[in-house]
Write a structure and sequence with these properties.
alpha/beta; eight-stranded mixed sheet; 13 helices; 8 strands; globular
């Protein structure tokens, strides 16, 4: 079930354009979808590269200790010659997680367009002004509307990027969660994995530390680093290959009625997101053990 490549453009065409802000949003949504203007690549590379480099410095100066385990499991996939896109999934501790967590990436990758992520971010928090629209669009952050479901514009753009062999990062909890238990994952990531033209390589991740510097209920929503106390820890898991499951789904679906196919689609989406939730949760458990061994858990 390959997504209709025109659907994203149709959704963009339906966007309102009554105000300056609405026209700006529609303009940048279309530019982000296609991303082939001569000026797009250098400007986008500059925004993403500058942001991740700044976050590298922020991690060094804003935290007492930064520990990253098995980052090579992501960088190896990014740097090798690949014929499949990449999806990364992680828990979501604060509104500042992206771009902070990408400060861990090696300097050699921060300025390479093929090795920088596209991500889905809350439209109501990021796309508030025409200037911000341009900044976040060039920063490869796809505007997502919570509650609009798995067929909204953000998922269509995400699918387009996967079909272009890009890397898309998703926080499948769907919102910031600073509780001990992770939220169940939303189905959008399942649809993207299932319907991409080439099934993505999926890399799970877990991190902790950002909620300490950006609690949800603070009056001024800006990070408050504490280099004397705060610690940041990240763990990257083994890649998950859903290609066999997707192939089986496509073969089975072709033999079903429309109603049966819809039911199967839902079952497979649930299976995928449940497996991803389990992978990230396992990383969370492993991280707790490692942090205890390092004496870092007292600050979390």
């Amino acid at each position: 079930m390959i997504p209709d490549r025109s659907r994203a453009q149709e959704l963009i065409d339906q966007l309102p354009r009554q105000t300056w802000h609405e026209r700006s949003f529609a303009y940048w949504a279309e530019k982000q979808l296609v991303a082939n203007d001569s000026w797009w690549k250098p400007l986008s590379t500059a925004v993403v590269g500058t942001a991740t480099t700044t976050m590298s410095l922020f991690l060094r100066l804003g935290f007492r200790k930064v520990v990253v385990d098995d980052l090579h499991k992501l960088t190896d996939v990014l740097e090798r010659e690949r014929n499949r896109p990449i999806v990364t999934v992680a828990n979501h501790e604060s509104t500042a997680d992206d771009p902070i967590i990408w400060g861990v990436m090696p300097a050699r990758l921060r300025w390479q367009p093929d090795c920088t992520r596209w991500t889905l971010g809350a439209r109501e928090l990021l796309y508030k002004h025409p200037l911000l629209n341009g900044f976040f669009a060039l920063g490869q952050t796809i505007p997502t509307v919570r509650g609009d479901g798995i067929y909204q514009l953000a998922v269509e753009i995400g699918l387009r990027k996967l079909n272009e062999n890009k890397w898309v990062h998703i926080f499948p909890e769907g919102k910031v969660n600073q509780e001990a238990q992770m939220l169940r994952f939303k189905w959008g990531v399942g649809r993207m994995i299932m319907e991409a033209e080439r099934t993505p390589i999926v890399v799970p991740m877990f991190f902790t530390g950002t909620k300490q510097i950006m609690p949800l209920r603070q009056k001024v929503p800006v990070p408050r680093p504490n280099p004397l106390k705060s610690t940041f820890y990240m763990r990257v898991g083994d890649a998950v290959d859903f290609a066999p499951l997707v192939c089986e789904w496509k073969a089975t679906r072709a033999q079903l009625s429309s109603e049966e196919a819809v039911q199967l689609d839902e079952q497979v989406r649930i299976s995928i997101v449940d497996q991803l939730w389990g992978s990230v949760n396992n990383l969370k458990v492993e991280s707790a053990v490692k942090m205890h061994e390092l004496g870092l858990d007292d600050n979390q």
